[in-house]
Design brief:
The complex is a heterodimer of chains A (944) and B (466).
Chain A lengths: L1 E8 L1 E7 L2 E6 L2 E6 L4 E7 L8 E4 L5 E6 L2 E6 L9 E7 L4 E7 L4 E6 L3 E6 L4 E7 L5 E7 L7 E6 L4 E4 L9 E2 L1 E5 L6 E7 L4 E6 L3 E9 L6 E9 L5 E6 L4 E5 L3 E5 L5 E6 L6 E7 L4 E6 L4 E5 L4 E6 L7 E6 L5 E5 L3 E5 L3 E6 L8 E4 L5 E5 L4 E6 L2 E7 L8 E6 L2 E6 L3 E8 L2 E9 L8 E7 L2 E6 L4 E5 L7 E3 L8 E7 L2 E6 L3 E8 L2 E9 L5 E5 L2 E6 L2 E6 L4 E7 L7 E5 L3 E8 L2 E8 H4 L2 E4 L7 E10 L2 E8 L4 E7 L2 E8 L6 E10 L2 E8 L4 E9 L2 E10 L12 E9 L2 E8 L3 E7 L5 E8 L5 E9 L3 E8 L3 E6 H5 L8 E4 L5 E9 L2 E8 L4 E11 L2 E12 ...
Parallel strand pairs in A: 13-17
Antiparallel strand pairs in A: 1-84, 2-3, 3-4, 4-5, 6-7, 7-8, 8-9, 10-11, 11-12, 12-13, 14-15, 15-16, 16-18, 19-20, 20-21, 21-22, 23-24, 24-25, 25-26, 27-28, 28-29, 29-58, 30-57, 31-32, 32-33, 33-34, 35-36, 36-37, 37-38, 39-40, 40-41, 41-42, 43-44, 44-45, 45-46, 47-48, 48-49, 49-50, 51-52, 52-53, ...
Chain B lengths: L4 H5 L1 H8 L7 H11 L7 E5 L5 H11 L16 H9 L16 E6 L9 E5 L5 H10 L5 E6 L9 H22 E12 L4 H7 L4 E9 L8 E9 L10 H4 L20 E4 L43 H19 L6 H11 L15 H5 L10 H7 L5 H10 L9 H12 L15 H11 L15
Parallel strand pairs in B: 1-2, 1-4, 2-3, 4-5, 6-8
Antiparallel strand pairs in B: 5-7, 6-7
Helix pairs in contact in B: 6-7, 10-11
The chains are: A mainly beta (944), B alpha/beta (466).
Chain lengths: 944, 466
């Protein structure tokens, strides 16, 4: 009855086997082919149980797949992975932590959470079970060596120890003694790895550190183990580790993957899963790739340690470098403390000496990286092309040049005192004065960056303002005040006729020129500060002491180097493949050159939401082609397409200040929708979605939130409803303080508060619009008090009455899901609560003139179908579906006859989505598409 | 986030601090007691996994100190007529002498971690899975068995729900194991469970040991949290029950609740504790509630003791002393020509978390984002610091020059200008001074043509001659 179409959730297991990535996602085995990342096989192994391990035998004809207490043997004829089939399935008595093929693939060893080892024959019949004398809960275990005789178990306990024991040493009562205890950690041991080739053991822990040991003797009487290093760099718990030939890798809750050498020096640090935990790690020697799986459902591959060419050089004659610059081909220029100009192609050569620039000098390189200018305190300017002086002159006011900016290689702008800006034009090798501008008065009256688009000159200053000048006008045409907070604008450039500004505040803003005015069209907050450049998808920034190159789209750090911060002299140059960065540190000129291809991780599966998805809506665009709109704890709104059994992300918006808890939409016309999202900090955002054939656009229209006073609590918006009353749209927002706020929505999608009604002093958990029947227009509100209240929409919208029509106590505590059917004057509601109860309630609606009242006629309840909070409910004729935190999706049959309602459970499906927050259903002919969302998303097709 | 933001988020967090509880979870036990009266006539109680001790604190205050704890404060927000009348009828209670201590009450708290002492609570630092711990408890009760066993312990949650639920179930079994050894027949057992996948299988089996089992959810436990509590009353083990063999009695493997039938399928009732007047942990309340004393921020009663990563925090005095001692020793060794014991020294330095010696890059080097994520009001009144955060690439050079050479004023004398010009005239290769009197209109024209020249793709488009 249930058929899982697609699933994106925690990737709990990764194994790279023969250029294929085997991934455990929920209870499904996914096989992807490298390097093109094609999915070649998807096979259901367990229902509702996540896969935690995949172990192939030597000739790859069999795989053991395990998770929790479940273990399954699969066969793979002739090593053809597309033909892989599940052969047997066993449920063991305890949680399985580690599995290994031993004795030349004739036997299987398993280690359980209660520190017990069992050996099975290849038909999975138990041969022997051995307990360790230390009886405590393990969070991790590793089995070393291949023969029963040699087996060595490494157990990671809840009490911070790694225990070494051998099953062979068992006494009569089958308890093996602990041979050695490794006590370096200060918290639960989450993972252990051992590499038999180099004898290294690594364990990671709750204490945010990993320890590496070397085992020099494995003689049971005298196991010799020395600690090599303990590493700290993770910002949260470390969940997995892997020891390779020349390095070891740790991953953790902080989304970081760190590669270390065996002395504990950091080789590479990379962020992968959007801040979500990394659960799994795989490595392939032949392809030299690491593969990681995380909480966001992504699988990412990357190189272990791509090459960075680092170079250090000093100036000749012990000169001290002061300012450094990079030219187009990677050639460098440097001005020394004694104002000697040097040029570097192969070696450093002296170009000229400028005693007049010794105390003060500005060096600026043109955007094309071919020209540079030196400007001094007395109005002197020298212009060079590579190492040739092409121009030198004084400005008429022989006063200090506060700033010099190239607009392109023919135009530059000079700032002198009192905010005088002068534009020059280089033509036929002569420098021509064009005009002067007046920079608005401020404390630091000079621009920090500049760019020109046609006859507009856009300038940013240290106060975060952006000015729009136009040739022919002395003063700015318009100004974007405080565009980048008080921290200042760092970089301005244009691309596709749009101006882009970067700031110290970590924002990237885009502007367009319309009617000569500069207008901001969007603003993007990055997680970095002090942005200095954005090229293609590479974002360059400074963070503390570090220069950081990151992937803009996924906001992950690709490369970091300690340079002492952005206050010192630095420069960079990029070309199609590589980036060169140089800076001065401790009187030495450092350069790093990296090939970005090598640094960029590649996604086998693109990441979806991190942590829980709280709200999700699905728009049916056509048969089997759905637009999924989702938001959650990660504050990001995502628009994705679900088609052909996969979910593809279209767009992501990071505008909400806090978590997104509610999403609703209203169809305006055939291809235009009003979308409203809301959540923490009582923020509500209106969007317009337009669907034109294959093209889907989403634009932010209104961002509404009330600033709260110190005394007020942080209110969250829990649920949203949109109603059309006499061609006027209204929005109902249910809040955590028990209020329902009613807004009118204008045609340009702005919100105006019309009324506010109170459900009770309890957090609203659900709102629903009940429309139809004999001209019935009701609002149903539900809260953590277990009450279902009905309101007349026209009363509350037109402020006629702020009293509920009726209320009914349906559940003991919060009503967390709701669905209804209206049949003439009978209303049937399906509610699910925090109290595990499913309640099917029949109401009679009595209408006299404009006065409406409801009466409860009959109810049927069930406490046993679910054993945890019920988060999703969908009622349709004859059937209903419920979902719960217990991960069961249940279809029940119901009957309404003689003023009585009755229901019984039909069938259930166990989803692997943890913490399901709800259920969205799309009815399509005889099939029902269910989207179950929580810690991930699963789409299940139900044939009724 | 300001320090009050947690207060704003969660009413019980704030109330716990106001009423002097070590953690908000104290309310959970109080609300369970309100519903099930589990603390009535209890003279011997055991708290398993006690740290930081808020449940022990409830036992101590209610049982030993004999305090009357009113968790329903008179507050306008929840005034119902009934409460209002009750309040009006009652004459304002004058503060009487503190209630008499109940010296006969014995409370034993067990945890692996130490916790701050509480009146009337005997602490045992031990492992609840060990039989010896059970014996030790009984010794404290002088051979008697306990009336009540409570356990609010939770495992180190990994974030992978199925594993967390499993480990929590194992912890409950561990607690139950010791309970069976120390609980008298007819006694009560309360423990935390995670309501999730297959939790009904676990709770259902508790009925083999207790007459009544309820799953309770106090209002102070968040709606969104999967946590709940099993309240097992009337301990009644089967005949010939040996607590050591508890596992066969509680086998939650290989079964599916929906496959259970008849007598085996008993639905454990779910009870919400805390009545209408109780606060709701999901609801947002203003910091200043009507009818209450003015809101004041209070520091947590008991900040976390020794988190696993605490060694990366500030060095303690003993760390510093130890470090100085080691340095001294090292100096002596060097003096004697022995060479310093670097390994030992490094270890003490690591404890100090001063810049690293044996660690390549310390975690003090927190991500820059955190460092620069300064609040808006940061260094509002400190202009010097502000300037340091507030400048671009040439800040250093400019300020340096400002110090060296005060910027010239307009009133610079003719002579000095001449002098400066003269200086440069001495430099032989200077050719001309640039005039900027008027603009050549032709040049403007050329400039405007320049804009439409070629195909300007982006900012870095180059016009340089090759």
């Amino acid at each position: 009855m249930f058929n899982s179409l697609c699933l994106q959730t925690d990737v709990t297991c990764i194994e790279i086997i023969d250029k294929h990535v085997f991934a455990g996602i929920g209870g499904f085995l996914h096989i992807y082919q490298l390097p093109n990342n094609n999915l070649i096989k998807r096979l259901k192994i367990f229902e509702g149980q996540k896969i935690y391990g995949i172990k192939p035998n030597l000739n790859l004809s069999k795989l053991i797949i395990f998770g929790g207490k479940h273990i399954s043997l699969t066969s793979c004829p002739q090593g053809n992975f597309e033909e892989i089939e599940k052969s047997t399935h066993h449920i063991l008595s305890d949680w399985i932590l580690a599995v290994k093929w031993i004795e030349n693939d004739n036997k299987i060893a398993t280690v359980f959470m209660h520190n017990k080892l069992t050996i099975w024959n290849k038909d999975f019949l138990k041969e022997i079970s051995v307990k360790c004398e230390e009886r405590c809960i393990l969070y991790s275990a590793h089995i070393c060596y291949d023969s029963h005789k040699e087996l060595l178990i490494l157990s990671g306990t809840v009490f911070s120890e790694v225990l070494l024991w051998k099953p062979l040493n068992s006494h009569e009562n089958k308890c093996s003694p602990v041979l050695k205890r490794l006590k370096e950690h200060n918290g639960v041991i989450f993972s252990i790895d051992y590499n038999p080739d180099n004898g290294l053991i690594c364990a990671t822990s709750d204490d945010r550190s990993a320890v590496l040991w070397k085992m020099t003797s494995t003689n049971p009487q005298d196991i010799q183990i020395n600690k090599l290093c303990q590493v700290y760099e993770h910002l949260a718990r470390i969940f997995r580790c892997l020891i390779l030939k020349e390095c070891f890798i740790t991953v953790g809750e902080d989304s970081l993957i760190i590669v270390w050498d065996f002395n504990g020096s950091l080789l590479r640090k990379i962020e992968t899963h959007q801040g979500g935990a990394v659960w799994s790690l795989g490595y392939n020697k032949n392809l030299d790739v690491i593969c990681s799986g995380g909480n966001d459902g992504a699988i990412t591959t990357f190189r272990v340690n791509p090459k960075v060419v680092k170079d250090y050089s000093s100036l000749p004659n012990r000169e001290i470098p002061k300012i450094v610059g990079l030219l187009r081909a990677g050639n460098m220029i440097c001005l020394s403390e004694k104002a000697v100009l040097y040029y570097h192609d192969v070696i450093w050569q002296e170009v000229a000496r400028y005693p007049d620039l010794q105390k003060y000098c500005i060096l600026q390189i043109s955007p094309c990286k071919r020209l540079f200018a030196l400007a001094g305190f007395d109005g002197q300017i020298y212009i060079y092309r590579e190492n040739h002086l092409i121009n030198k002159f004084f400005l008429q006011h022989k006063s200090r040049i506060f700033a010099f900016h190239w607009l392109d290689c023919n135009r530059f702008l000079v700032t002198q005192k009192d905010g005088i800006l002068i534009l020059y034009f280089i033509f036929n090798n002569t420098i021509n004065f064009i005009q002067s501008f007046i920079f608005p008065s401020s404390k630091e009256r000079w621009p920090t960056c500049a760019c020109a688009l046609n006859d507009h000159i856009i300038l940013g200053d240290r106060k975060g303002n952006i000015y729009n000048f136009k040739i022919g006008h002395e003063s700015p045409i318009n100004t974007q005040k405080k565009s980048h907070s008080y921290l200042g604008v760092t970089y301005l450039y244009f691309e596709n006729n749009l101006i882009i500004s970067l700031g110290r505040d970590g924002f990237i803003k885009r502007y367009k020129l319309s009617n000569n005015n500069l207008e901001c069209i969007d603003s993007n907050k990055t997680k970095f500060s002090w942005l200095v450049g954005l090229e293609n998808n590479l974002l360059l920034s400074f963070s503390g002491d570090n220069f950081v190159v990151s992937d803009f789209k996924f906001q992950r750090i690709l490369f970091e180097t300690k340079c002492g911060g952005g206050h010192r002299s630095w420069d960079y140059v990029t070309n199609s493949k590589s980036i060169i960065f140089s800076f001065i540190k401790q009187k030495i000129i450092h350069t790093c050159q990296l090939n970005m291809e090598d640094f960029m991780p590649k996604d086998v599966i693109e990441g979806f939401h991190v942590r829980e998805i709280n709200a999700l809506k699905v728009l049916k665009l056509s048969e089997d082609y759905h637009l999924v709109i989702s938001g959650g704890e990660d504050t990001i709104l995502r628009l994705s397409i679900a088609q052909f059994n996969r979910i593809k992300i279209l767009e992501t918006f990071k505008i909400h200040l806090s978590s997104i808890r509610a999403i609703n939409y209203y169809k305006l016309n055939i291809n235009k929708y009003l979308l409203i999202t809301a959540g923490g900090r009582a923020q509500i955002i209106c969007w317009q979605i337009e669907i034109q054939d294959e093209k889907i656009s989403c634009i932010e229209k209104c961002n509404f939130y009330e600033s709260v006073s110190q005394e007020e609590g942080e209110t969250r918006i829990m649920h949203l409803c949109i109603a059309n009353i006499h061609e006027q749209l209204y929005l109902f927002a249910g809040r955590s303080d028990g209020l329902i706020k009613i807004f009118s929505i204008s045609t340009d999608m702005n919100l105006k508060l019309e009324n506010s009604i109170s459900h009770s002093n309890h957090c609203i958990s659900n709102l629903a619009l009940i429309k139809g029947g004999v001209n019935i227009d009701l609002l149903a509100s539900m809260a953590t008090d277990g009450n279902l209240k009905f309101w007349s929409i026209s009363d509350i919208c037109y402020n006629q009455s702020n009293e509920a029509l009726n209320f009914f106590k349906i559940h003991q505590s919060g009503i967390t899901s709701f669905s209804y059917i209206l049949k003439d004057d009978r209303l049937i509601t399906l509610t699910g609560g925090d109290d595990n109860c499913i309640s099917l309630t029949l109401f009679g609606i009595h209408k006299q003139n404009s006065f409406i009242s409801l009466a409860k006629i009959n109810v049927d309840q069930n406490f046993a179908i679910h054993c945890a909070q019920i988060t999703g409910a969908f009622l349709l004729n004859g059937y209903f579906i419920t979902s719960s935190i217990d991960q069961r999706i249940v279809i029940s049959k119901w009957l309404y006859k003689d003023n009585e309602v009755k229901f019984s459970m039909l069938e259930k499906y166990d989803t692997a989505i943890a913490d399901p927050q709800g259920l969205e259903a799309i009815l399509d002919k005889r099939s029902l598409y269910l989207y179950i969302f929580g810690n991930g998303i699963e789409c299940v097709k139900v044939n009724i | 986030m300001g320090k009050t933001s947690k207060d704003k988020r969660d009413i019980y967090y704030r109330k716990a601090k106001e009423q002097g509880w070590r953690a908000r979870s104290a309310f959970k036990l109080l609300q369970i007691d309100e519903k099930f009266n589990i603390l009535n006539n209890v003279t011997r109680a055991v708290d398993l996994c006690a740290a930081p001790g808020s449940w022990s604190q409830v036992l101590s205050r209610k049982l030993y100190l004999n305090e009357e704890i009113n968790i329903k404060e008179p507050m306008h927000l929840f005034y119902t007529d009934a409460i209002k009348e009750a309040l009006e009828e009652k004459p304002p209670t004058t503060p009487t002498s503190p209630p008499k201590k109940n010296e006969s009450v014995k409370i034993v708290a067990v945890d692996l971690q130490p916790m701050s002492p509480l009146p009337g609570v005997i602490q045992i630092q031990g492992d609840i899975t060990k039989y010896s711990t059970a014996q030790e408890i009984i010794t404290h009760f002088e051979g008697e068995k306990s009336d009540l066993v409570i356990c609010d312990g939770a495992p180190d949650v990994t974030g992978l729900h199925c594993m967390d639920i499993y480990i929590q179930a194992q912890l409950l079994l561990g607690a139950l194991h010791i309970t069976c050894n120390v609980l008298k027949t007819g006694g009560t057992f309360v423990a935390k469970i995670f309501r999730g996948k297959d939790s009904d299988l676990l709770t259902n089996q508790l009925l083999t040991l207790f007459q009544e089992v309820h799953v309770a959810k106090p209002k102070s436990s968040r709606n969104s949290s999967i946590e709940a509590f099993v309240v097992c009353q009337g301990y009644n083990p089967p005949q010939g029950f040996d607590p050591k063999l508890i596992t066969p009695y509680l086998d939650v493997s290989n079964k599916d609740f929906s496959t259970l039938e008849g007598i085996n399928k008993v639905i454990i009732p779910f009870i919400v504790c805390g009545d209408v007047s109780a606060y709701d942990s999901d609801t947002t309340y203003p910091l200043q509630l009507e009818g209450e004393a003015p809101y004041v921020y209070r520091a947590p009663v008991q900040p976390p003791i020794a988190p696993p990563y605490s060694f990366k925090q500030d060095p303690t005095k003993s760390d510093i002393d130890n470090f100085l001692k080691k340095i001294d020793e090292a100096a002596k060794r060097v003096g004697l020509g022995l060479g310093a014991d670097v390994k030992d020294l490094n270890e003490t330095v690591r404890k100090l978390s001063i810049s690293d010696v044996n660690l390549p890059s310390s975690s003090n080097n927190v991500k820059g984002a955190a460092q620069f994520d300064l609040p808006e009001d940061f260094c509002k009144d400190d202009t010097k610091t502000k300037q340091m955060f507030d400048n671009g690439p040439y800040f250093d050079l400019i300020t340096k020059v400002d110090k060296v050479q005060k910027p010239e004023k307009d009133n610079e004398t003719e002579a000095s200008v001449n002098l400066r010009t003269m200086d440069f005239k001495l430099m032989p290769d200077f050719e001309f001074l640039y005039k900027e009197d008027g603009t050549d209109p032709e040049m403007i024209q050329t400039l405007l043509q320049h804009f439409s020249m070629g195909n300007i793709v982006n900012y870095t488009t180059c016009f340089c001659p090759e």
